Structures are given as C-alpha cells and as structure tokens.
Amino acid sequence: MNPFKKDKKQVSIFVTAGYPKLDSLKGQLLQLQKQGVDFIEVGIPFSDPMADGPVIQETSSIALENGMKLGLLLDQLDALRNEVHIPLVLMGYLNPVLQFGLDAFLSRCQALSIASLILPDLSVELYETKYKEVFGKYKIPVTFLITPLTPNERVQRVAQVCQNSFVYLVGQNSITGQGYAINEGLSSRYAELKKLCGATPLFLGFGIDSKEKKEQAFKSVDGVIIGTAYLKAVKVEEEVKFVEGLL
Amino acid sequence: MIIKVCGLTDNQSSMQVANLNGVDYTGFIFYEGSKRFTETTLATAKQKVGVFVNASLQYIKEQVIKYNLDVVQLHGNESPEFIRQFPKNIKIIKAFGIATEADLEATQLYEGLADYFLFDTKSESHGGTGTTFNWQILDAYKGSTPFLLSGGIGLESIEKLKQFTHPQLAGYDLNSRFELSPKVKDPDRIATFIKLLNMKTTSYLDTDPLGFYGEFGGAYVPELLRPNVEELDAAFNSYCFTEEFESEFKQLLKDYVGRPTPLYLAGRLSDKYGATIYLKREDLCHTGAHKVNNTVGQILLAKHMGKTNIIAETGAGQHGVATATVCALMGLNCIVYMGEKDIERQAPNVQRMKMLGAEVRPATSGSKTLKDATNEAIRHWINHPDSYYLIGSVVGPHPYPKIVAYFQSVISKEIEKQLLEKTGKTYPDKVIACVGGGSNAAGAFYQFYDNPKVELVAVEAAGLGIDSGKSAATSVLGTPGVLHGSLTLLMQDADGQVTEPHSISAGLDYPGIGPLHAHTIATGRAVSISVTDDEALQAALELSQLEGIIPALESAHALYALTKLELKKEDVIVVNLSGRGDKDMNTYLEKFPNL
User: Fold this and answer.
1) Is ipTM beyond 0.90?
2) Which Gene Ontology molecular function entries are recorded, alphabetically (chain A) (predicted)?
C-alpha cells in the first residue's frame, strides 16, 4: 500500500542530515513527528548540489564539514527505527549513493523501511533503462520530479512509475528556495497535473515558505514539501515555532 | 528481430504505436479474461495479430474475416488437432507458458503446425503477468520452429535481451511494461526500446540514444533541465549539419580564428626525440588557444536558437575569454561564472573578459574553483531556461560532449589534410594531447578514433605526483561517478564527495574527464600518461629554447609525454599544441627566476 496519502493534505519537511550539528537529525525527526508533520525528507549532503539554492548548499557543506557521511546517516536512522513512525524519504544526488554501492544502499533502505527515494539527477529514462531492476529487487519506490512545463504524457509516465510513492512537483523552473507567487496560471496547471497523476499523490515543493502559500497550494495539489524555509529557521533555532506556524 | 506489440485497442496511443518504425506485428486480445480485451482492431498497415484463448474455430474465423487478421495467436490449451483445422494461409503463433524445462516438451507436438511459437511466463491467467521467466530454460529448446520471447519485457530488459541468444529466437513480444495504463500504450517507451535494441556502437564517437559512450556519459540532469538539453540536442542535430551553418562556421574559422592553423615540423625537437614530430599550432588561434573553435560553433547555434543571453563557466579564464570574444562578435550578453579563487589567480583574463564586455560573476560556494563555477552556471541555467549555456569542454550532460567534440574536430580534420601533403599519409602513428576535461584532445583525436593504427595519447596532470594527494590525474585516481550531468571518471573520496584536484596548470585541474575520454581510456583505445608540474615546466622551457615557441602550461604536459613514450625513428607524431604561454608568464617567472 502506498504510504503517501491522497485523501488528506500532506505536509512534509526537508532536513539536511548533519546540519547544524552532526547529531542533529534525531532531535529534528522526533520533534517534527511530534508536531504532526506527515512525512520527512532526509537530505543526503553532497559537495556539488547543482539544483539547490544557497541555503541548502550551505547546510550541505556544513553537514559535510561536520563529518556527515551516507553510512553514518543510515546508522543514525537505524538508531531511531522504533521511535519514528511516519514515512521517511531519502533525498540526495546520485553520486554518493553510487559510491556507497547501489545494492548496499538499497538493502539498508529496505531494512530501514525507507518509504521512497528522490534522486534529482536521475531521470525516469535512465532509471527505467539502467537502474530499475536493482531498485525493484529491494522494492524501494523512486519519486521523480516534474515541473509545470513537463509534457502531459511524460507526467502520466512519471505518475505510473511513482505509483507506490508520489510525484514531486517543482513549483516553478528554478533551483530550491526561490520565492514566487502561485498565480492563477500556475495553480490551474497544478490542478491539471494532479488530474494527470491519477491515483498517485502530487506534492509541491521548491519555494514553499509560509502557511499562506501552503494553503494556496492545497487547493490544487495533495501536499507540500518545505525545505529552504525550514532550514533558515533551523539556522536561527526557530524551527519549532516555524513548523507550528506552518501547520 | 520481429517486434510485436500486444494488447493494442482502437485508440490514439495504439495508432501511434502501430505507426512506429520497427513495430512489425500489432496484437489485439480477443479474450474476455484479459485486462486488454478488445473486440475491435485498428486500421493499420502493419501485420495484425488476433490473440485467442481456447476460443472456438468458428469465432476465430469470424474475427479473422471481420478484422482482416494476418495472424492468429493461440494462447490457451488449443490442441494440435485443433490447429490442423485452420486454413493454411492463416499464420499461426502458438503460445506456451514456460516455468521449467519440462514445459518445453509440449512444443514437440506442435512442430510444423505454427509459424512461430511464443514463450511466455507461465500463469493460470494465460499470460499478462508482467513478469519475466528464466530465459536460460530456453537453451533446452531444440525445435525447428522460430519463437518470440514474451512476458514482462521492459526497457530494463535491454541489456539481458542483448546477451540472450538462441538460434530460433525471432523476436520480442512487448506488452504491459510499455503502458501508461492497461489499453493505453506508451509510444515513447516503445520507440526507445527499438532504438536501444538496434544500437550497434560502430564508432568510438557514437553515443546510444541516452547519450552514453559505452558505459560513460548520459544526461544526469534534474527534470528542470530536461527541456533545455532536449532543445539543444534537437537544434544541434537539425542545424549544425546544414550548408548554411557549415559555410558560416568555416568562414569564421578562416577569417576570424585564423584557421587552418599550421602543422609545423619541429625539426630540433624531432632530432632530440629521434622521431618525426609535428606540432599542431592551436596556440596561433585568435585568443591564443583552441577554445575558440568551440565557442564560434556554439555561438552560431545559440544565435540560430534565438538566444540572446549566453552563460559560461571558466577555470583559468581561457574559455571565458573565448566566450566573451564571440559574444562581442555577435552582440550578445555574456555572463561568465568563475571561481572566486580563480578570479584572484587569473586577473589578466578577468580583465580581458571585462574589456570584451562580459560580466564575470564569482562562484563563492564549495572550493570556489572551476567545478563550483560550473555548478553556478548550471543553477543559472535552471533559473533562466531561455539562456544558452556555452560549455567549454567535452563534459556536462549529453549532448554537450558530442557537440564540443564535433566543433573541435576541425583540428584533426586539418591534421589529416596537412599530413597528406607532408608525408603522403593521412594519419600519424601517434597523436598526443593534454586532457583536463578534454576538448583539445577530443578534437585532435576525432578523425583517428576508429583507425586502430593511430595511437592516441591522453596526457593528464599529475600535479605534485600521483600519490601526493595534489594531483589531477583523473583516469588513474578517478572512479566512475556522476558530476555536472554525466557519468564519468571522477576524482572523489570514498563517500562520493568530489575532491579538488591540483595542477600547476589551471586548465587541467578539473575533477572529471569527458565521458568520451573515460570510455576510450577504459576500453584501451586511448592510453593515458601522467605528467607532473615540474615535468611540464621542464618541457615548456625546452620547447621555448629548441623551437622558439612558448607553450601554455597545459600543452607543455602533452610535450613532456615525448620523454615518456618509446619512439621509433620512423614514427610520425603529432603533438597538439593547444595554447600559447603568455597567460602563464607569471608562473614561468616565478619558477625560472634565474634564466
């Protein structure tokens, strides 16, 4: 059964593992769960995050300086297995995962019951021709990104591949953390995309930073993912208040 | 190979599939128990197959007449006697579910009764399982009826399909893995499948449809950049081989860049190394290096695509200058991303770019060098998809490596002609070129990749030495990884974080190499040699004093390879002298204070 819901609007938070401190993840996950976030994306830091804006770039470099590594990240999640009950998604660029070893990584993800993986630099074509078999072996569903400009047929194809997770809608053509207004044109396109996704939930991310924007997004999609705005709050130790204000 | 697509219905997606080149048989399922049941077909010129499960002869015959079926596929427990009742001019496919070798025994009774067998995954539901079976079982099939392979074949099966051979294998039956939903086929996936299946890499320069040279390359880009790379690929393929483009490109290369560059017989160098050594004088190009060949080609492409804002990344500033130059020539806006550290180190080139009217934007993230400048350029491109990203080397997502190599191929095309005049042969014994990302090497090797008589020598920067921890010898120290949109050899730590390379030459300290080079080095087509900072300095001084040519530090790496190679007297060697040394005078001044 798909752990990502379509019948109730979802809110997800993106956390860079190892930021601001090497061992911050535990507290963050438990706090977010307590506050009622529906699922959490745990970011795997990478030296060259090409689709990310300055905020996530910075958290990524600090996490790496702190000594965060993929193996350690998985160990930290392992230690929390009995305490975190909401779905966890791992999100990161492909290279650290490939170096860890795709098989080894997926087998650990399976053991940790990771609900889905988001690998922004892996396209649906590459996945289907080169990587699908190994992902299938460990039954880890992959979540792919679409944008308002993605052609309809491709949206359907992505929705089908993501039927056991969700489709990640990048709200506008930009890197993470760039503010923009959800105007009428955008929201009607979002609604159209939602229809094309059929039974697969459609969650909106990149640039969602306030309750107001969240509510606006809820009108046309099944949920929202918040990264940059949350990490900015973490930087000034205001994240609890931020999430409170958001939900 | 026969491609049969099954489970079509009378809808638009089915029609698109039927119209695809390479689809031979269109299958319609006349079985109510199937999710793809239909009682109609399409108006297609392709062979039409009706699929039946334990239907009566009368019913089948009616459908054959009504829909003009060419083939009847029997997917149930139809007996040999039943099949004998069919008129001879109806082609028959008899399907068998296969789970073990024992399932193959039944086929013997049907020999001579069917045109094809179809081997499918065994199931109670007569097919449609969407899963594959163990094809190795078919090794035990010794019959004389050719067969189609069926059951769960998808895009992910390509590699295995290519490995699976059998003397009676006639084709593939595609169904559920090529659907957006039951009854709605996905023509894109089927077209990709056919393309991949028919791919034969005949040239080192050919990429597969996904942009791979062997196992390296591809387009590992976020969905946000997909339209950009697709637009670029389409524009390159449709425009850059037209007469209009070629004449304009040639004209500019001649009148603006100053081509052809000489192929100079370096007499004193030849004497010293005991072989015939030619220098391909790319250092005489306008702006002082080969980089401009590519920027001229790409700026014409950008102009054709209607782009007015050009972005580029640069390390030492050579590509930045070459980009700023052609933008000035065409009157286009130019933004060059350059690592903050490189801006300090390469002040004269920064000044040149500014004088040419470009804006130089510092990359302040990460290690503040070329790789970070590239990240920033990619981010800019994501945020401004209407801009044209002019990549300077054979790196980045497909189609960039292909495009840049093609524009640089003018180097080896000239070498062929010039050698013919000078030696009577169109090819040398060895071509030597330095490799950072590898654009000058790709250009110098281009015409010779598929000529095994030519040894291709790629020279990398060893920095302070391979084992020093301060090196840029990617093919020795690198491992496969994904950076800047392609899978290639990459300098990285055990956790997959990209490490900062070192070389005295700013043009060679990139943590990756182009996927074409990764492929040719990994397969043994090209050899790689590593040359240290000190060795390169020595070669630069030697060339200056033997031939009166001060080379760029990058090119000096290629020159030092002469010392490391075993040369024979009759060998004809071409060294690609990619750039001139003016930009390196500060380094030379510092390293040779007592000349």
Assistant:
1) yes
2) tryptophan synthase activity
Tokens of A13: 């938070």
Residues 6+ apart with CB under 8 A from B344: none
Q: Pseudo-torsion of CA B285, B286, B288, B293, nearest 10°?
A: -60
Residue B494: how many other CB atoms lie within 10 Å:
10
Cα B366 versus chain centre, distance: 28
Nearest to A53 by CA among B372, B379, B370: B379
Which pLDDT tens digits describe chain A residue by residue (247 residues)? 899 999 999 999 999 999 999 999 999 999 999 999 999 999 999 999 999 999 999 999 999 999 999 999 999 999 999 999 999 999 999 999 999 999 999 999 999 999 999 999 999 999 999 999 999 999 999 999 999 999 999 999 999 999 999 999 998 888 887 878 888 889 999 999 999 999 999 999 988 999 999 999 999 999 999 999 999 999 999 999 999 999 9
Classify residue B512 by its DSSP letter: B
Q: Is B291 a catalytic residue?
A: yes
Residue B201 has pLDDT above 70, yes or no: no
Give all domains of chain B, ordered by start, each with its CATH number.
2-198 (3.20.20.70), 212-256+288-403 (3.40.50.1100), 259-286+409-591 (3.40.50.1100)
Residue A1 belongs to a domain: no
Contact indicator for B95, B73 with CB cutoff of 8 Å: yes
Give chain A's domain count.
1
In angstroms, the separation between the Cα of residue A135 and the nearest Cα of chain B is 11
Q: What sections of chain A are H helices per DSSP?
A: 24-35, 54-66, 70-79, 94-100, 102-111, 124-126, 132-137, 152-161, 184-197, 211-218, 228-235, 239-246
Question: Is residue A203 less than 8 Å (CB to CB) from chain B?
Answer: no
> Nearest-CA distance from B394 to chain A in Å?
19
- Chain B residues within 8 A of A198 when measuring between CB atoms: 181
On whether residue A3 sits in a domain, the answer given is no
CA distance B128 to B151: 7
How far is CA B236 from its chain centroid?
14
List strand residue ranges (DSSP E) for B297-340, in order: 309-314, 333-339
Alpha-carbon distance A176 to B258, whole Å?
A: 44
Residue A5 domain-assigned (yes or no): no
Encode burial over B142-165: b for 16+ CB neighbours within 10 A, e otherwise.
eeebbbbbbbbbbbbbbeebeeee
Residue A123: domain span: 10-246
- Chain A, residues 6-25, CB within 8 A of chain B, namely none
Residues B454, B571: Cα–Cα separation, whole Å = 11
**Residue of B78, B179, B282, B313 with catalytic role:** B313
Phi–psi pair at B304, nearest 5 degrees: -60, -35
Tell me how far apart the alpha carbons of residues B346 and B368 are, in angstroms, rounded to a whole number: 13
